Amino acid sequence: MAKSKSSKSSSATIGFEQQIWDAACELWGHIPAADYRKIFTGLIFLKYISTAFEKKYAELVAEGDGFEDDPDAYEADNIFFVPPEARGVKLQRQPTHRKSAQS
After folding, report:
1. Which tops the pLDDT comparison, 1 or 78?
2. Cβ neighbours of 88 (radius 10 Å)
3. C-alpha angle 11/13/36, rounded to 5°?
4. Helix, strand or coil for residue 3?
5. How far apart are CA 81 and CA 84, in angstroms?
6. Between the N and C ends of the chain, which has fewer C-beta atoms within 10 Å?
7. Can you give the pLDDT at residue 7?
8. 82: how many CB neighbours lie within 10 A of its CB?
């Protein structure tokens, strides 16, 4: 079921879902099932709230009233407000290894 390394695309050309799937395939044999479930349930939840936030953010920017960074504008529609430092674009630019972050 696992893809061969030669058939993998770079992370720049595949979607977030494919990256999660590839990571899940690699971790499957190394993590007990109970712990595996906890890790990926959290990642799926993060993807869900990020997608909902990005959609609402785009709507607020299009309206042009300047409420795109107001948490109340999101809470009114039962959407989690994602602070700028936790948004997907910033997280994707983070180093993936602890060693890289310390260099």
Report:
1. 78
2. 15
3. 40
4. coil
5. 9
6. N
7. 45
8. 21
> CA dihedral defined by 18, 25, 95, 79, rounded to 10 degrees?
50
Q: What is the pLDDT of residues 5-62, one digit of tens each?
A: 444 444 455 567 777 777 777 766 777 777 777 777 888 888 888 889 999 999 999 9
| Tokens of residue 54, six digits | 């990005």
Q: Which two tokens stand for residue 78?
A: 């039962």
| C-alpha 20 chain-centroid distance | 9
Residue located via tokens 């430092």: 85
What DSSP state is assigned to residue 101?
H
Q: Maximum distance among all alpha carbons in the chain?
A: 50
Structure-token match 């607020």, residue found: 60
Tokens of 85: 């430092």
